[in-house]
Amino acid sequence: MTGFWTQAFTITRRDLMRERRSGEVLWVTLPFGAIALLLVPLAIGTDVRTLEAIGLGMFWVIVMLFGVLIAVRQTNTETQAQRDQVALAGIDPAAGYVGRSLASFLLLVVFESVLVVVTIVLYDIPLVGFEWMPLVIVLVAAGLSLLGTLAAGIVSTGRSGAALVPLLVAPLSVPLLIGATQTFESLRFGRSSLAWVLLMTVVTLLLAVAGVLSARPLQETG
Amino acid sequence: MRVGATHILRDVSLTINDGDAIGIFGGNGAGKTTLLRLIATLILPAAGTANVFGVDIATDDRYNIRTKIGYVGHTPGLYPEMTLSENLGFVAHAMGTDPAEADRSLTAVGLAGAADRRAEVCSHGMQRRAEFARVLMTKPDLLLLDEPHSALDADAVELVDALVMRTLDAGGAAVLVSHDKERVLRVATEFVEISGGTLS
To answer: Do A84 and B90 touch (CB under 8 A)?
Structure first.
């Protein structure tokens, strides 16, 4: 038997290897996210002030919607035989949860980092408070990856499959969305954004605890 | 054992001792795979108890015995994007086995030349062989094989027999479920029939 973190990193490495081979995030989700950001100015017109005003909000909405797809990408296609193999390799379900979430986190950080540059270019948004951007990107990526992995674990126990994921994820991602947008809104008006960063941190920690504690029961009902 | 409102297994009592190679036969939907997955601790009984290696599988202690179990289902559990070597390497890393064992095991099942081939481009028979290589690598005390002879050529059928004999020689036990009584009886020390979720 190996330790918790060895098992978690083994799962992370497996997920990243599969992603590198399939290119799902890099060649499908990421370009679609960028296209979605491009379509908005085409749909509402090119009024610079409007684009400036909505740019960052659009970025976070796109991150939430497409980010969930990244977090649940492989659970939807994982077969029972593959799950059996992981279980009989002695991998603790909680380590599996952490490992999957970590892989999704790394992919989400890349996804957000690329899209934020696209947003700056397309929407010409003012870079007020952007020194906070790396921290917010990390918190949103952590929260979304933990949430998506938890949601994927829950839906894999039932017969409704991926159809339930948006229903589970949408309400629970609202604090992350509000936290991310309000952090920069506060900074724009010269207020402290600490409360919003704290909100995202607490939500992320709660998701981590919920995910680890529910991993074993979810595996057994899957 | 129940799935939804349907009883898959009912009044099943089976004891497996070291050195046993038990063949379980039955038609489609008889409950063979469910019984095997129950022994593998992958599903839990709705009523009654199941002890594997002296551990009640309804308790969390089942997580401590799972690495002693080698299970090959009728559907390969390989990751299609990964090579055969990487697939086995993943299990080796997770279990703390020397990763070099992965390639040695693939060589032992005649897949040395395909070790760097992605699972998705391997035939079903090759994937089955790779699954046997995984079990060979993990050296289980309890070997569980679900329809082990399907999609295999003559050489690979011999491989199944060798795998069972190796497990028994090491003091372990094996359970094989199959439609193919004749082939299983070549290695089985005893057999049971299952019908409608009940053993006879």
So the answer is: no
Cα B108 to Cα A56, B57, B68, B97, B129: the distances in Å are: 57, 33, 21, 17, 10
CB B87 within 8 A of CB B130: yes
pTM for the predicted model, two decimal places? 0.90
pLDDT (0 to 100) of residue B183 = 86
Tell whether A89 is within 8 A of chain B (Cβ).
Answer: yes
- This model of the complex carries an ipTM of 0.89
In angstroms, the CA B72 to CA B70 distance is 7
Q: Give the 3-state secondary structure of residue B26.
A: coil
Distance CA B96, CA A52 (A): 53
Flag whether residue A98 sits within 8 Å of chain B, measured between CB atoms: no
CB A188 within 8 A of CB A111: no
Contacts of B91 in chain A (CB under 8 A): 85, 89
Average pLDDT over residues A98-117: 95
Please report the domains of chain B, with CATH numbers, ordered by start residue: 2-199 (3.40.50.300)
Smallest Cα distance from B35 to chain A, Å: 15
Give the span between the Cα atoms of B94 and B84, in whole angstroms: 16
